[in-house]
User: Which sequence fits this backbone?
């Protein structure tokens, strides 16, 4: 995991079209938010002009009527600007929150289409960061664009224009300084961008560490490793802090330079403008200089807003690239070659010269030369040592992965000819890692069949030897399991997962070491239920216990990604040394030398 998180990923170019659709449903708010902010700016920039008239035609000559007239006009302009600004802020908030909602949904929907191979390319912590932190940065940037992104340039241009109208020579001070400031900002951004990319990778690592700790919190406490995990998380958080400081330090260094330039402009304007009034040059008046200083403040404010936009864009550009990477990821398993009307005829499974390897490196094959035929309605047992690719083999049946070469056939058809939903509706898997979700026991069981009746739920639970312990709870099937099923034991989790799979009534049932946490009597009862109530269904059992597969129609022994031996229990016991050794050891027949 550390290597995966540390390795920089090439994100490529950002396609803004991928994000434009996220505005859908909030288009008019996105349109009118900048319109109202532009109205606010126009109202604000004309206030200093009215103030000029108030000073020159009212205060300077003692004209009370002019003071009241222009003072009332300034008040009206300020109130209208306030209303326009409030409307803009409200519309922008609705638009950006809606945009973030749509973007998160789009990312989540995309992840749901990923195959196991696609998911393997991203760490879980990284995907969580992209759906939370990255989306928040993008939302903030979107907010800045539709409000400040319009406010700053409009205010800058109109203030410069009105300043030029008051005195061209004084306004040249801004015209000369503005390009220097723009070049400095872009130079800082070019250096800071890769640092923000590194910062987000550190975020990924921290989230991965946090998730791993919370999932395994019982193991942490059982081994008294709290201090070790605390130190590991402290280091991950420290890495985030250090990289964030390095990235934002460059941006912070740019602020003093900008303030120096802006306040230098202000001092120059006051100096030269004051001399113009004293010497009566270019018709400069006290009211005109006062308005010019107001425009200085507006210009400086607009430049600060541009700098703020720039910082947000530098940060969000890294987030855009990371989210774009998820949106552009092409699912490895699709329905492109599928026949839309093809249904799974029966539960027969055939592997024809199947090889498989993770990724594009064909030299590192996990499975090699697999040829296997499983008749419909039969029971296949699979045993093998750790790392012998037992789980990988059965994951090819519902196309959780696709073969590298050869073919897997279900119901007489290549699995790639079925629509993914059609194929997986016909295959039920009880995975090695038992996963339950937040909600009641009933909610979890209905994952197998959302329309299942209470009678069907209870029957499936009885067949999985789960009904008895479920009814022992005060709320029975309405018992809340909590996150990940924290309220039940490992063996109870397994039985609930088996019941969930039974409710699906599939043509093929795959049990991946799914009774390892139950006692042998319960294991036998579950197998008996399969034989009596699920006749005609193909059952594939991966197990470590020989008793779990002893009565299977056929048993295969996996070794280093190959089928080392196959046959019935009796045949393998007499012909396969590996199988016989496992049988004897589990039966207590192995003597110590």
Assistant:
């Amino acid at each position: 995991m550390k290597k995966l998180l540390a390795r920089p990923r090439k994100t490529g170019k950002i396609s803004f079209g991928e994000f434009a659709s996220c505005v859908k449903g909030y288009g008019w708010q996105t349109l009118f938010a900048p319109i109202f902010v532009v109205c606010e700016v126009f109202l604000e920039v004309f206030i200093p002009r009215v103030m000029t008239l108030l000073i020159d035609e009212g205060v300077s000559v003692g004209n009370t009527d002019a003071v009241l007239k222009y003072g009332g006009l300034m008040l009206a302009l300020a109130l209208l600007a306030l209303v326009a600004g409030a409307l803009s802020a409200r519309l922008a908030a609705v638009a950006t929150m809606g945009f973030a909602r749509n973007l998160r949904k789009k990312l989540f929907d995309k992840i749901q289409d990923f195959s196991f191979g696609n998911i393997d390319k991203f760490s879980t912590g990284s995907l969580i960061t992209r759906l939370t932190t990255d989306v928040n940065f993008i939302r903030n940037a979107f907010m800045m664009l539709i409000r400040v992104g319009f406010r700053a340039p409009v205010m800058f241009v109109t203030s410069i224009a009105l300043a030029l109208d008051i005195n061209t020579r004084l306004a040249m001070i801004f015209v000369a300084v503005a390009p220097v400031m723009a070049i400095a900002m872009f130079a800082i951004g070019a250096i800071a961008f890769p640092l923000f990319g590194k910062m987000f990778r550190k975020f990924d690592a921290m989230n991965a560490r946090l998730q791993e700790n919370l999932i395994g919190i019982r193991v942490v406490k059982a081994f008294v490793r709290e201090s070790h995990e605390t130190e590991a998380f402290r280091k991950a958080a420290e890495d985030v802090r250090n990289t964030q400081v390095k990235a934002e330090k460059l941006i912070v260094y740019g602020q003093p330079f900008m303030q120096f330039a802006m306040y230098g402009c202000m001092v120059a304007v006051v100096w030269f403008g004051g001399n113009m009034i004293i010497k009566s040059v270019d018709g400069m008046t006290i009211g005109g200089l006062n308005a010019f200083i107001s425009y200085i403040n507006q210009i400086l404010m607009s430049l600060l807003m541009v700098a703020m936009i720039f910082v947000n864009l530098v940060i969000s550009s890294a987030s855009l690239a990371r989210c774009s990477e998820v949106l552009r990821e092409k699912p490895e398993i699709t329905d492109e070659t599928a026949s839309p009307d093809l249904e799974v005829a029966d539960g027969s499974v055939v592997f024809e010269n199947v090889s498989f390897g993770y990724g594009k490196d064909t030299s590192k094959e996990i499975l090699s030369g697999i040829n296997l035929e499983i008749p419909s309605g039969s029971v296949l047992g699979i045993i093998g040592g750790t790392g012998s690719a037992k789980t990988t083999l059965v994951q090819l049946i519902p196309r959780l992965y696709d073969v590298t070469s050869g073919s897997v056939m279900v119901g007489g058809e290549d699995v790639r000819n079925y629509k993914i939903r059609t194929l997986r509706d016909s295959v039920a898997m009880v995975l090695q890692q038992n996963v339950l979700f937040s909600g009641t026991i009933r909610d979890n069981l209905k994952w197998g069949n959302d329309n299942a009746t209470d009678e069907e739920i209870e029957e499936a639970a009885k067949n999985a030897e789960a009904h008895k312990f479920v009814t022992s709870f005060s709320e029975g099937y309405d018992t809340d399991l909590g996150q990940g099923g924290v309220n039940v034991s490992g063996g109870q989790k397994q039985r609930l997962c088996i019941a969930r799979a039974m409710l699906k009534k599939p043509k093929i049932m795959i049990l991946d070491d799914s009774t390892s946490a139950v006692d042998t009597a319960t294991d036998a009862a579950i197998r008996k239920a399969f034989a009596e109530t699920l006749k005609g269904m193909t059952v594939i059992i991966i197990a470590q216990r020989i008793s779990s597969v002893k009565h299977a129609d056929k048993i295969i022994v996996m070794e280093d990604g190959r089928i080392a031996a196959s046959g019935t229990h009796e045949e393998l016991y007499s012909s396969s040394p590996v199988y016989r050794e496992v049988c004897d050891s589990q039966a207590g027949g192995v003597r110590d030398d």
